[in-house]
Amino acid sequence: MRSNVKLLIIGAVVLAALAAAVILLNVSGGSEEPEEAVSETTAASDPLSKLLYDKDPAQIDNIHVSNSSGEYDVVKYNDNSWFVSDFIGLPHSAVAVNDICSSAATFTSQQVAAENAEDMSVYGLDAPRAEVTVTFGGGSDVREMLIGNESPSSGLCYAAFKGEKTVYAVNSSDVDIFLNDRFYFLAKTVYTQKQPEDEDDTTDYAKITSITISRKDIDYDIVLEYDVRQDDPDAVYGNSSTHVMTNPVSLDLNPDTAYNVINSVFNLTATEIAVAAPTDEIMEQYGLADPFGEVSFDITGGDFYLLMGNEYFDENGRALGRYCYADGIDIIYMFDYSILPWATVMPLDISMTMITSTYIYSVNTIEIETAGSSTLFTLSGGMDDFKVECDDSDVTVDNFKDFYQYILRAPAEELYLENCSEPADITLTISHEYGVDKIEFINSADRKSIIRLNGRTSFKCRTAYVNRLIENAEHLLNGEKIVTTW
Fold it and tell me: How far apart are CA 47 and CA 68, in angstroms?
């Protein structure tokens, strides 16, 4: 389950000097009590805003951070990449690592809050929220900073160099990065769409060939496959989704309800990180040695799988999501249910209720078989010259279209996968340009009928629909009006 992860390469960024004076705090006389912020007009022209030091981030060798979450080091790995030392070999967030290097390379004071503070506790600097030690140039230059309380002025907090009594008011946004724990620097995005390397490359790297969902709460796999009819510009069909369901039943998908199940894999990002570099024992503890479920994607841009383990809960015992392990990345992630559709989806949640959606102009023949008869209808032509031929009947085009509309309304009301070998009360065999659909309706004892689709027991529907279907078949042959209700 382990795999090496390519190291992220972080480009060195040259910071522009921070400017623009802000509202800040004056401390008068010898008093150690912070005063109210000066007016925006005064602050805007204040000459005390200055750069305390400004280094090239590329010169950073090490950033040591100590805060309420613990201690960690961001270390230089090569000429232009840095990693949290505990997580070398794991995927890092390029943005987060770049941010901490940028903040560590430059330190700007908006104003001096106290020249010679007698009581550093007034500013939260006796027990600072963070201590930061930045080492530059192979140890030739070391800067040690303390990050204290937020000031009464919005957007500012107090800071000082370790061992000094001068207290500065600095932009909180410049130092907030040092308040994060070490997991903040790991990447939470587990899959991104591959981009073509050549601008002339027209390959659809986002094309998902198939999706397979396996879970312990269902005794079958849910399989969605790319609808090849999408590649035929002349195809006429009723499915507007990019995919169809092929297991446990064959159905077209509802494009609205199936969209997230198909597309949420792209830029899939975890809610939180639970454990980095888990041992086998930890994998078992989180339910990932024998997972609750797995979803796998066959994608042109690169295959991907996600193991789904135990649930995690809020303080009230409500299940929020599941611990997951993504495609061999050596991290246990937390995914809320809102971004983990594969953990809960059921087949009929995302499918169309119609058993068949083939357009009538794509149909070649329809055979209707009942206990005592068999009738074959041959269809030809398009919208303007559509014809229906039947040796046993002078069927009209309009009446046949009404009958076919009734067939299309055959409802997949309930999933039913138990084997059934009973003979059908009525069988419809629809031959069309993409193959053959054989739909059999078998009476059941619960005022419902079993539907066997292409030899596989798949659904149940109300028997009232089937009884009306048999009646309508007679109406069609007799040239009588089709009844569309049941």
Answer: 34
449 pLDDT above the threshold of 70: yes
Residues 270 and 336 reside in one and the same domain: yes
Tell me 401's DSSP state: H
pLDDT exceeding 70 applies to what percent of the chain?
A: 89
Residue 410 within a domain: yes
Q: CA angle, 80 as apex, 75 and 55 as ends, to 5°?
A: 75
The last residue of one of the domains, among 350, 383, 415, is: 350
Asked if the structure places residue 6 within a domain, the reply is no
Is residue 199 included in any domain, yes or no? Answer: no
Q: Which residues of 167-189 are buried (b: 16+ CB within 10 A; e: fewer)?
A: bbbbbbebbebbbbebbbbbbbe
Model pTM? 0.78
CA-nearest of 416, 400, 409 to 451 is 416
* Of residues 438, 430, 434, 401, the one with CA closest to residue 234: 434
Whether 346 and 385 share a structural domain:
no
- Which residue's entry shows tokens 């078989």? 369
- The pairing of beta strand 268-269 with beta strand 167-171: unpaired
| Residue range of the domain that includes 51 | 40-187
